[in-house]
Amino acid sequence: MTAPTIPPAPGDHRWVAFVRGVDATGTLTALAGVFSTRGVSFDSLATGDVVDGVGLIVVTFTASERRQRLLTRTVARLAAVRSVEVRAAEPSEHAAAVVTSDLPFRTS
Q1: How far apart are CA 15 and CA 59, in angstroms?
Q2: Which residues form the ACT domain (predicted)?
């Protein structure tokens, strides 16, 4: 059972999460489950290239700072997640797909 989606409240902010996860069945499902069970919907989601079996997932969402910290901690604990970084979204960032430059976790 999933929690009902909580409408944005005054003081909620838009966030961009950069998640490095294992390229395996269930990784995206586990990530979505963390948000779903806490009543937070994705505003957008995009995936990037897979390097050495680890891919980039970029998610934008709206939540309070407290809920964002809870989501970040919970996502970081997932077995399939290698790293997570969350930033406040810039006003010009309307979708995860527009976040194309200066991505964290780049490997050379």
Answers
A1: 8
A2: 16-89
Residue ranges per domain, the chain?
Answer: 13-91
CATH number of 13-91: 3.30.70.260
pLDDT bracket for residue 90 (50, 70, 90): confident
**What is d(CA 83, CA 85) in angstroms, rounded to the nearest whole number?**
7
Note the residue count of the chain.
108
Residues 6+ away with beta carbon under 8 Å from 46: 57, 58, 95, 96, 97, 99
CA distance 61 to 47: 15
> Residues 4-37, buried b or exposed e (16+ Cβ, 10 A)?
eeeeeeeebebbbbbbbbbeeeebbebbbebbbe
Task: Summarize pLDDT for 3-50 with one digit per residue, the tens.
Answer: 666 666 778 999 999 999 999 999 999 999 999 999 999 999 999 989
